[in-house]
Amino acid sequence: MGSPSGPPFDPDDPDRERRERDRDTEPIPRIGPDDGPGYGTGPGLSDGPSLSDDAGFGDGPAYAGEGRSGRAWVRDPEAGYQPPQISEDELAGLRADASGMAPRRVLPLEDEPSSLVARYLFPTERYRGEWKRHWIHLTTPLLIGIAATFVLGYLAGFLAGQDVGALTTIAVLLWFAVMGWVAWKVADWWYDRFILTNKRVMVVNGIITRRVAMMPLVRVTDMKYEQTPTGRALNYGTFVLESAGQEQALREIKNLPNPNELYLRVVEEMYEPQAVEARLGKEADEAKADDGA
For 113-156, what is each residue's pLDDT tens digit? Predict the structure, then answer.
């Protein structure tokens, strides 16, 4: 806009107050229908297009489904909120390109939960995946089983040469007991699952005595994972979940595989659930198209 015409402002001008008083008392001319397209030509009024009764208030392009610029907004009478449309460019960073390279690892998961997990999910909950603990979780029982095999095997052979049948039998029974304990630990590892849905994280473990711990995603205030040098080499880590600074059953989960992928999945589910839905829907459509071909 241009600067107003007239002499520059001078605070010491003796006629300044008189000119301002005359200007304030001067009547503003009335605009008639024959005055042309402008607002008028009186003092303080600049030339420009006239205003009509329906200017800016009709069904113009600024308020229609196709805006003059920017994103179009569609009003749905059935719902007060419409989820934003996620573009293909926003999803491109979540999928691998033609060369197979991707910014992060997202391993394919089963579409349906296992029978062990399905019984703990309610109908409106959307399954995101389940993970067994890393095999490193079995290091201690496996080492004990191997050591017991060598030690008790040598002891049983030595006692058999000494013609002490009762002690040999005890050594063999002791070996069976140790191996039974190892088998129990392996079975317990198999039934131990970390579960992620669109609403919560869960840990299910136990064979005879079943334990189920869960935490809603909306209550997770802090989440981190830790990796030792061995964990980085073998790709496992420990997750620590905080909920409003309080102690809870689902706080520390040790020996989870692929901790970086799992961390990104949980964070994405917490902060970008619509991107998850869009990506999974896109993958389902591509799978259907491949099956049809």
Answer: 888 899 999 888 889 889 999 999 999 999 999 999 999 888 88
Encode the chain in three state secondary structure.
CCCCCCCCCCCCCCCHHHHHHHHHHCCCCCCCCCCCCCCCCCCCCCCCCCCCCCCCCCCCCCCCCCCCCCCCCCCCCCCCCCCCCCCHHHHHCCCCCCCCCCCCCCCCCCCCCCHHHHCCCCCCCCEEEEEECCHHHHHHHHHHHHHHHHHHHHHHHHHHHCCCHHHHHHHHHHHHHHHHHHHHHHHHHHCCEEEEECCEEEEEECCCCCEEEEEEHHHCCEEEEECCHHHHHHCEEEEEEEECCECCCCCEEEEEECHHHHHHHHHHHHHCHHHHHHHHHHHHHHHHHHHHC
pLDDT at 105: 45
pLDDT at 89: 62
- pLDDT for the residue 112: 83
pLDDT at residue 183 greater than cutoff 90: yes
Under a CB-based contact definition with an 8 Å cutoff, are residues 257 and 235 in contact? yes
pLDDT-based confidence at 39, cuts 50/70/90?
very low
Write the CB contacts of 191 (distance below 8 Å, at least 6 apart in sequence).
Answer: 116, 204, 205, 206, 207
